[in-house]
Amino acid sequence: MPLSEEQRLNMKKRRQKILDTAVHLFATEGYEGTTIKKIAEAAEISFGNVFTYFKDKEQLFIASVVEPLEAISDQILDFNEHAEDPVAELLEMVKKHIKLFAGEQNYLTLVVQVVGQHQRFPEPFDHLDQFHDKWRNKIGRLIESGQEKGLLQKQEPIPVATLYTSLLIGIRLNNTDTRYSNMWDQYITPTFQLFGPIH
Known about the structure:
Residues 12-72 form the HTH tetR-type domain. By secondary structure, the protein is mainly alpha-helical. It folds into two domains: 1-54, Arc Repressor Mutant, subunit A (Orthogonal Bundle), CATH 1.10.10.60; 64-193, Orthogonal Bundle (Tetracycline Repressor, domain 2), CATH 1.10.357. It is 74% helix and 0% strand. The protein is built from ten helices and no strands. It is elongated, with a radius of gyration of 20 Å.
């Protein structure tokens, strides 16, 4: 008998709750310190029910890295590298990214673990690495456009883009304040200066 719409919705919610709990635990307790039992208890779901959605801990870990990235990738890439005014576009991009990254502490902690142990976690790292290349190259094209128009200082675009993406993650990991703290707005101007705007 096919599942009803309500049953499908409940299963989707349950799977998401498991995934959100796993992201939190993997980020705070690491891969070794996190067990399916701990995830099930924290998510208030039976141990066996976790395996309805995920084959094993490794698959759940991979999903914890890959699926949130898929969920926020469109927001991260939501800027126009062909904008008429590259400087204004860069400033708006920085504002959007600062706001977005302010709310992603657990996930970014998990990302740093994977990048730091990329040989141990090759599959999730590969997803992160491919996305980072795509993101960095898009920023690089916007920087190049600003330089060609004489609006930005001449410097190599890809290293600048790499510094920018690294800075965003670093800001988030070095702040224990809430995502709505006024401090986040104060990071916008110095972060934007990284691109070398000519005033």
